[in-house]
Amino acid sequence: MPDVAVIPRPVLLESTGGEPFVLTAATILVVDSAPELVAVGVLAADLLGRLSGRPVEVRYTEGGAPSVVRLTVTDDLPAGDEAYRVVVTPQRVDLSARTPAGLVRAVVTLRQVISDIGEGTLTVPALRVEDHPRYAWRGLSIDVARHFFTVSDLKSVIGLLAHYKLNVLHLHLTDDQGWRVHLPSRPLLTRVSAGTSVGGGPGGFYSPAQLAEIIDHAAARGVRVIPEIDVPGHVNAATHAYGELTPSGEPTDEYTGIEVGFSRLHDDLPATREFLKDVFTDLAAMTPGEYVHIGGDEVLTMDHDEYSRLVGFVSSVVRDAGKKVVGWQEIASTPLEPGTVVQYWDINADPAPFVAAAQAGAQVLMSPASKAYLDMKYDAGTALGLEWAGHVELRDSYDWEPSSLIPGVPAESVVGVEAAVFTETLTDLSELTSMLLPRLAAVAEVAWTAPEDRDFDDFAARVAQHGAFWDRVGFSWYASPQVTWP
Ligand code: TNX
Predict the structure, then answer these.
(1) Predicted ipTM?
(2) Beta-carbon neighbour count of residue 50 at 10 Å?
(3) Which ligand 1 atom is nearest residue 258's CA?
(4) Could you tell me if 29 and 104 lie in one domain?
């Protein structure tokens, strides 16, 4: 099927032969009238409308219409919230799934197989897709602390996640250089520490209403938001706002450099636990999802005992607020409750703590920096990005196997895959997407597609077809020499 370049590669995609479906002015979109389904229907109609340049009507019944795109919820599919089916015949397109999130996946597959043949005419080849993801957690972590990204930027990123069937947006909301979410219990955090960023730029923050707007926008596209407040290190923005968090009682200076590991909380200061309780209780209250990320990385100036106590305390606050804990891999060396998610990033780390954590019922989320850190330079000539984990070309982001990455950690303990983009060197959406694309598509396929169905050459031939889409949407991207772009 030369014109069909679906990423991530579906479980089954077959041509059923014959004439394509043609979207005309007579085509209507039909969906049952449950509110969540209507929302997906409106999203799909809006998409088809934008592609064809003419509005597509949403109806609740077919009423004998000659040309129909139909969205249906059914149990007649493999298990899992995101399983879906697409069947295209000359007269109709049937999208079915077990859940609204599954329907979003089906709509995206439809979008990726549509050809625009001009003058508002869209065609879809006659085909059948049966599909479901390998991993339930397929994410992107984005650092909005080193540089701030607006609500509108994040909506663009969410669109990109949805387009590659990623379902988690992890927001790294705080770091030494800035505090990016307003918390009602601690107003000084944003009043004092939101206006800075790496290199001294203007910074910014999200109000509770804006965070809710991001969460809702993501939810409508089958993407859940996992917010992170990074403690007990990476906290200079907090100690800059609240002097009571430092041994001298004086606030620290603002920080706009890119060193890591120097800032810290102190468990023996009376203000510390009050602070942690306030901020994580507020954050959990603003989070409809199951998880809150507590950070926990790179605390280079604290002994292990104190680190363990602080991680334990924060984890208990998060659990008391009804949420499960996610933390960077360093938390694996502390006692963890079952169900905690440990995010692996440093490929040189000792496997032993991960093995022990998995045995204790923790799950591991795979973000190996040398594969999935999309702020790494592609090669020595890349203008932006860092290189502490080496250069990460497209093939590096594609050719790896999450289930056997950490020796001794059983495949069942791997909850999924998350790409990450830290933004020390990335100041706007265009710079951001130039690092995400095309590698985000590669990581998305690692997370969705079974290993036996993955092949770099096959992926490269498909991703070559996606450049035109990125151009149309206005995303900057990197023309990797590992792909023959058309
Ligand atoms: C490591 S990965 C960090 C971040 C940096 C990033 C740069 C991790 C948990 N911490 O603080 O921004 O490297 O790539």
Answers:
(1) 0.91
(2) 11
(3) 12
(4) yes
